[in-house]
Design a protein that fits this description.
By secondary structure, this protein is an alpha+beta fold. The chain is 37% helix and 13% strand. The chain has 10 helices and 9 strands. Helix 6 packs across helix 9 (301-323) and helix 9 runs antiparallel to helix 10.
Length: 356
């Protein structure tokens, strides 16, 4: 395997820079470190910002919120830090947490630092020099499902996370919450989702369980073993983790899952190489999850439609920051087109015959 397949950070974008000396001083007050860090930035992600701090003999990762107006309930660094700290003993796929800072005089926002897990992160396309055989792809997508089942099997009380969520009624809260968030972020060049929101309200099921959910379960949020690319060694980006319905978590995850043969907007906005030969299909993933978890899924359509609508809401919140000139990142310029595509996907799923 080429060393270029390992996840690499690049130059820090000007608008995302911070006071390196201040962070260095904060860390050295409680962490044994030598020298001055070299700071680079990872290109992936459209929400929280991720940097690498390279010290002599040690590589750390810093996470912080983006600039501009932020949703009231989002980008909670302390929460993300706490979730991973407490999950570690029951779910051994979280990185080691190093330090949390809520002193905004350091870099202007909360942030946390964790140990880097060296490995492969698959972004939109496979890294140069990296091959994923159909057998490896099937093993990876199977592992991706199995690790989600493992997470959903964690006892929240035993992990000390019983207060992470609000209890029963998660499905209804999400439908109403994302409807309000989408409406608040809507710009004039995207659809209203009026019929989708109405359909979700009229077809929502009861919660099937109340467990720890990741809420951003994607291939580009897992780290792969460089020597065994079908094996997941870490799961990243716990910003939206909470207690909730596991099928809502799976529905959210599959909104990103683009199958082989995708063209046009579907392929243009693809974030992960779920389209390579050998990967499980959406249908196979749902069936495998049901088999491994023991959860009966009478009608998958609701979770699929919800996943598309929720993703549209996330993308629209990001696009609004670009639309309102709170960020100049050119990646976000055409995100409004992705919102239209997800609207079409949701309407298409709504029109399918009920399963079962």
């Amino acid at each position: 395997m080429s060393s270029g397949a390992l996840d690499q950070a690049g130059e820090v974008r000007g608008e995302d820079s911070f006071d390196v000396a201040a962070v260095d001083a904060f860390l050295k007050a409680s962490v044994p470190l030598e020298g001055t860090p070299t700071v680079t930035q990872f290109p992936g992600g459209a929400s929280n910002l991720t940097y690498q701090l390279t010290y002599p003999g040690r590589e750390l990762i810093l996470r912080r919120p983006p600039g501009g107006h932020l949703p009231k309930s989002g980008h909670d660094m302390k929460r993300e830090f706490t979730v991973q700290s407490k999950l570690a003993k029951d779910f051994p796929y979280v990185p080691e947490m190093v330090a949390f800072c809520d002193d905004k005089s350091v870099i202007g926002s909360d942030f946390y630092v964790m140990q880097k897990v060296p490995g492969i992160i698959l972004r939109k396309n496979l890294p140069k020099g990296f091959e994923l055989t159909p057998e490896d792809a099937r093993a990876l997508s199977t592992s991706w499902v199995e690790r989600l089942v493992d997470l959903h099997a964690v006892d929240p009380a035993a992990a000390g996370l019983e207060n992470l969520g609000k209890g029963s009624g998660y499905v209804e809260r999400q439908v109403e919450g994302w409807s309000k968030r989408y409406d608040a972020a809507r710009t004039r060049n995207v659809p209203s989702f009026k019929k989708v929101k109405k359909w979700l309200r009229e077809n929502q099921p009861e919660d099937v369980a109340n467990c720890v959910i990741h809420n951003d379960w994607r291939l580009d949020n897992v780290v792969l073993d460089p020597d065994d690319p079908g094996r997941i060694i870490a799961v990243l980006d716990w910003e939206m983790a909470t207690l909730g319905d596991p099928l809502m978590d799976l529905g959210s995850a599959l909104a990103y899952w683009i199958e082989p043969g995708a063209t046009g907007l579907e392929d243009q906005f693809r974030l992960q190489p779920s389209n390579v030969p050998g990967m499980l299909t959406r249908k196979e993933i749902v069936e495998l999850y049901a088999q491994k978890s023991g959860i009966e899924i009478p009608d998958w359509r609701f979770y699929e439609v919800y996943g598309y609508f929720r993703l549209a809401g996330i993308i629209q919140q990001i696009y609004k920051r670009y639309h309102d000139k709170e960020t100049t990142n050119p990646r976000f310029k055409n995100f409004w087109l992705a919102v239209w595509f997800l609207h079409r996907q949701a309407r298409r799923s709504m029109s399918q015959k009920r399963a079962g």
